[in-house]
Amino acid sequence: MEPIIVEAVGTVIGGRTEAFDDDWNTEQAVIRLDATRYEPGSVAGLDTFSHVEVVFQFHRVDPASVHTSARRPRGNPDWPEVGIFAQRGKNRPNRLGVSRCRLLAVDGLDLHVRGLDAIDGSPVLDVKPYMAEFGPQGETVQPAWATELMRAYY
């Protein structure tokens, strides 16, 4: 496969400085869009949405620590070994995170958010408004370990 070149559209400013699990809904941060490439018109109308979806890079994950096989999420021996594509851990092949978070305010090219599970300095690759129609259609199903893992995440 040919490499895909992606350029960050902005950077996470503030919030946590270290990645640790749980209580992300208490975190507030700013997504600062690149003013050399974008102007306030780029976010016109975004403030009419309550939530945004953010694609970012886990920039502090050492590529040598990426997982490609099965492991127990968070190393918990009570949970089954599952493949990297059956979990949302940060040690992923392309080190990409996807987060839905509350949009608190739009101030020029600064997007104020709460609940973004990215840390200060994370490159932001894309921002999209969350629209309910893009959510899952029909019933969703997940294993009990995933529900337990996410219980205190937000």
UniProtKB/TrEMBL annotation:
Q: Name one GO biological process term.
A: methylation
List the GO molecular function terms.
methyltransferase activity
TsaA-like domain location is: 6-139
Looking up PROSITE patterns in the UniProt record yields:
TSAA_2
SUPFAM superfamilies linked to this entry: YaeB-like (SSF118196)
- Does this entry carry the keyword Methyltransferase? yes
Write the record's keywords in alphabetical order, separated by commas: Methyltransferase, S-adenosyl-L-methionine, Transferase
Which domain of life does the protein's organism represent?
Bacteria
An example of a Pfam family matching this protein is: TrmO_N
Q: Which family does it belong to?
A: Belongs to the tRNA methyltransferase O family.
Task: Identify this protein by name.
Answer: tRNA-Thr(GGU) m(6)t(6)A37 methyltransferase TsaA
What species was this sequence derived from? Nonomuraea solani
Q: What is the lineage of its organism?
A: Bacteria, Bacillati, Actinomycetota, Actinomycetes, Streptosporangiales
